[in-house]
């Protein structure tokens, strides 16, 4: 099998540009995932974010997680747990408005670093969207505009730690799913592994790598590209040793953005993906996240949408 795609973004500036664009295209078409090095986000900022995230976990989250585990009897389960994940998380929103100042228990330094990191990730996300446009033959700015809605994109970060787990075969760190949104940028632990993606029926590790950013594509890009790019199923396998840090930032459509396949990517009579308002998709996703994505798309196909009111009369 081919190796997990690693893209050196610096190579876009020289003789390697064409080969690098080709590599990104192949990753989007065949993996739904790739890992970026030399992405331009300062390594010292990443080091600060990592240090503060790990400190915050130890100070504010770890004890709470242990109490939750023991209250649910999770460490002693005998059968597969299907309704919970072995993860400790909190969420930050950056766009359309930041809520970082309202999140409790964060130091000023942590708030400031996360804001700075989010700004860099936002820029990187938009750069990547334009690289995807280029590969897809869409005009520059098309994807950014497609996700924009009336107030701009929704951009948020899920800060997670996956603590050591005594029963990783019975409890997943995070159960298999595809991501709902646009493009996802992940800063993951460089030592403790666990993230896997499903490729050709096999679970493949996303290799930890110092200072890299892992990129994956969500359901909305699958719809907009009319299936040329697919959102790929992934999961986190908990480890028996070590706590895995993962900071996942989701560049998603604005809630009122209308999502539909780009007309130039629809071959004649081949329109297979539906049109819907992103907020409606998210309402469905909230209930069906850990199930196959196809029924989510199906639910918005014209014939089914029309059935809705009839069925409820
Ligand atoms: C997610 C996700 C992966 C990770 O939050 O959707 O897939 O490594 N996270 O935390
Ligand atoms: Ni995910």
TrEMBL record:
Residues 153-253 form the Fe2OG dioxygenase domain. Its EC number is 1.14.17.4. It comes from the Eukaryota. One of its GO terms (molecular function) is metal ion binding. Keywords: Ethylene biosynthesis, Fruit ripening, Iron, Metal-binding, Oxidoreductase, Vitamin C. Pathway: Alkene biosynthesis; ethylene biosynthesis via S-adenosyl-L-methionine; ethylene from S-adenosyl-L-methionine: step 2/2. Pfam families: 2OG-FeII_Oxy (PF03171), DIOX_N (PF14226). One of its GO terms (biological process) is cellular response to fatty acid. InterPro entries: DIOX_N, IPNS-like_FE2OG_OXY, IPNS-like_sf, Oxoglu/Fe-dep_dioxygenase_dom, Plant_2OG-oxidoreductases. PANTHER family: OXOGLUTARATE/IRON-DEPENDENT DIOXYGENASE. Belongs to the iron/ascorbate-dependent oxidoreductase family. This is aminocyclopropanecarboxylate oxidase. It comes from Medicago truncatula (Barrel medic).
């Amino acid at each position: 099998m081919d190796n997990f795609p690693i893209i050196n973004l610096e190579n876009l500036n020289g003789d390697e540009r064409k080969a690098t664009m080709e590599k990104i295209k192949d990753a989007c078409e065949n993996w739904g995932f790739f890992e970026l090095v030399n992405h331009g986000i300062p390594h010292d900022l990443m080091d600060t974010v990592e240090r503060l995230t790990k400190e915050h976990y130890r100070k504010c989250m770890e004890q709470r997680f242990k109490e939750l585990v023991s209250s649910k009897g999770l460490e002693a389960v005998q059968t597969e747990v299907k309704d919970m994940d072995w993860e400790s998380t909190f969420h930050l929103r950056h766009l359309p408005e930041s809520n970082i100042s309202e999140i409790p228990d964060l130091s000023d330094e942590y708030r400031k670093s996360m804001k700075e990191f989010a700004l860099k990730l936002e820029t990187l996300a938009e750069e990547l969207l334009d690289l995807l446009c280029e590969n897809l033959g869409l005009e520059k700015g098309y994807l950014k505009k497609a996700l924009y809605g009336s107030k701009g994109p929704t951009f948020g970060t899920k800060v997670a730690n996956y603590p050591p787990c005594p029963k990783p075969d019975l409890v997943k760190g995070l159960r298999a799913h595809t991501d709902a949104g646009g493009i996802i940028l992940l800063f993951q632990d460089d030592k403790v592994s666990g993230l896997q993606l499903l490729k050709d029926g096999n679970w493949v590790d996303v290799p930890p790598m110092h200072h890299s950013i892992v990129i994956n594509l969500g359901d909305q890009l699958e719809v907009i590209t009319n299936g040329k790019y697919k959102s790929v199923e992934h999961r986190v396998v908990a480890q028996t040793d070590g706590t895995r840090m993962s900071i996942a930032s989701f560049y998603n459509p604005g809630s009122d953005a209308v999502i539909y396949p780009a007309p130039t990517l629809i071959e004649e009579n081949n329109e297979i993906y539906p049109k819907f308002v992103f907020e409606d998709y998210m309402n469905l996703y909230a209930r069906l996240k850990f199930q196959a994505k196809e029924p989510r798309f199906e639910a918005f196909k014209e014939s089914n949408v029309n059935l809705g009111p009839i069925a409820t009369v």
